[in-house]
Specification:
Radius of gyration: 21 Å
Number of strands: 0
Distance between the termini: 20 Å
Order of helices and strands: HHHHHHHHHHHHHHHHH
Structural class: mainly alpha
Number of helices: 17
């Protein structure tokens, strides 16, 4: 989920990452808090919950667009994989241990495997697919750096047909709802294309309107499906799928909105360093099980006029709490990094470079 290989990060995309993780927290509020299951068309809060869900559902796609945008010109770094893996292990083991030793969650063979091998077992599905994408990125880059602009366009078009358009109308084998590696590769290629050639339209208002229009179409589609339950088998799939056409287009539009914003802020860049940590803490399975139901009591606000206020205050509270926790995690990792012999990391890196020399990974 890192956005840049450079020392100085572009604050516009760092701000986008902060916005996206905030959206993810809200999405979890609606899903794990139960509002999406409980609310119906006759409830006023239905339009608030389903409207915001449709507005925020582009988050995962946007993160991958950012990755493609930067990694096409970046270098493969084994250290990055190690750092990501270390963060995942740290939060997975630490949080699970707290729940086990307090008796909140039982310690079973299944949960222990998920805790100590979170990447392999897919405890955080996004991290698992992201790491695989990053491992493939040097080879993808070789192809993308050596094809012509027109061929890059054709690649995106063909991929869009099979991985986006046909799945959106439930008319293809590729119906995984967008959680797959090939959807990530498609978005990576789009982000890389924007970095290499940009898009002909650079009007911020145009892309903002496109994002809002896509969100409205997503909301309309979801409402239609909830009203006529037989519709999905014959017309289109769930509009909240990550590979649904308007989710993909909406993500591209929001990405382009922030691309056309030029800001530089050390504070934004500092906060953005904790985006991955915020995700790992708030998305831990044990945390999801208790946070929205037993701590925040979201069910008490399904039909309340305070529904949105409760969501906002809950989201800010989660964001700030996770930010503070990850701040201390970063300090701890700095200390641990000094204690780990550099020769170990150097040896691992040297071995990898020897193996991958012919692939020009550096």
């Amino acid at each position: 989920m890192s956005s840049d290989e450079n020392t100085i990060r572009d604050s516009n995309f760092e701000l986008l990452r902060i916005v996206l993780i905030s959206m993810i927290i809200c999405l979890h509020y609606f899903k794990y808090g139960g509002a999406l299951r409980a609310l119906t068309l006759s409830d006023t809060n239905y339009y608030l919950a389903y409207g915001l869900e449709s507005l925020f559902i582009i988050t995962v796609d946007c993160f991958i667009l950012i990755t493609g945008y930067y990694q096409i010109n970046g270098k493969f770094k084994l250290k990055k994989i190690i750092d990501l893996w270390a963060q995942v292990i740290f939060y997975s083991v630490t949080i699970s241990s707290i729940f086990w030793f307090t008796g909140t969650e039982p310690m079973t063979t299944s949960t222990m495997l998920q805790t100590f091998f979170p990447v392999i077992t897919g405890t955080y599905w996004f991290v698992t697919v992201y790491i695989v994408l990053y491992l493939f990125s040097p080879f993808i880059n070789i192809a993308l750096r050596n094809i012509k602009k027109e061929d890059h366009k054709k690649l995106i078009l063909v991929s869009a047909v099979f991985f986006v358009i046909l799945p959106s109308i439930n008319f293809t084998y590729f119906t995984d709802t967008g959680y797959s590696l090939y959807n990530f590769v498609f978005l990576y290629c789009v982000g890389a294309y924007v970095r290499k050639y940009d898009l002909p339209v650079k009007n911020l208002t145009f892309f903002l309107f496109g994002y809002l229009m896509c969100s409205f179409l997503i909301f309309s589609g979801v409402t239609l499906l909830r009203t006529f339950s037989e519709t999905p088998e014959y017309f289109f799939t769930d509009p909240w799928n990550y590979n649904f056409i308007f989710v993909e287009l909406g993500a591209i539009c929001l990405f382009m909105v922030f691309k056309n914003i030029k800001i530089q802020s050390p504070m934004i860049n500092f906060i953005a360093t904790s985006v991955f940590g915020i995700y790992l803490i708030s998305n831990h399975p044990f945390v999801l099980d208790v946070l929205y139901s037993k701590i925040l009591h979201c069910a008490d606000y399904y039909y309340s006029p305070l529904f949105v206020r409760h969501m906002l205050f809950s989201g800010v509270g989660i964001l700030v709490s996770c930010l503070i926790i990850d701040f201390f995690r970063q300090k701890l990792f700095l200390v641990l990094h000094k204690l780990v012999p550099k020769s170990i990391l150097f040896s691992l890196g040297k071995i990898f470079r020897i193996i991958s020399k012919d692939q020009r990974l550096d």
